[in-house]
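Recall the central idea of this unit: under ordinary conditions, the amino acid sequence of a chain determines the structure it adopts. In this exercise we apply that idea directly, starting from the sequence alone.
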Amino acid sequence: MAFELPTDLTPELVPLAWLIGTWEGMGRLGEGEAEDEYFWQRVTFRDIGGPYLEYRSESWLTDAEGNKLRVLTAETGFWSLDREQLEADAGPGMIPGDVFPVLRSADDVQKLHTKDGFKIQAHIVQPGGISELYYGLIDGPRVQLATEGLLRSKNAKQYASSTRIYGLVNGELFWRWDVSQGNLELKAHASAALQRIAANEATK
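Accordingly, the structure predicted from this sequence is:
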């Protein structure tokens, strides 16, 4: 579907704006070889009025025709530009910030741009007691993320690090997720191609 940039975005969300909306599609686990399983996924990036996007992903294991077999996993979290938090920012907790955003114009946001793009952070929580903190870059319609910190509950399965890449190609969101479960190299975990099926569902 055609995407129009929202006119009321907080300025620092503009570099992330192309992600906003709900995306759905099919993917494959592992390297996507003949024996690797299929999944169906819905991903939502939602602007709720702050200087961050709310992220949610739901995935179901499917057969090759896309018929859902069972729930695979869900994730939730927040994506934002990586910058120092100032007195005018909201938080921690429910401490209110200033009425006006800290970065009030495109010029303010552009000052954060590096030769490689904008630095971003993403905090993603998985079921099973795993919480990931990613740092990375967004450069136009491309995102690269790598875990900087990872918290596992005492009963969580082994999980050491991961990387994620996203790209917008011909209107579709392509992504790949690589994971290390211990003292091993990163291995292909999953990938998918998603189509935007809805615009932002803001609660502002």
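The two ends are 23 Å apart (CA to CA).
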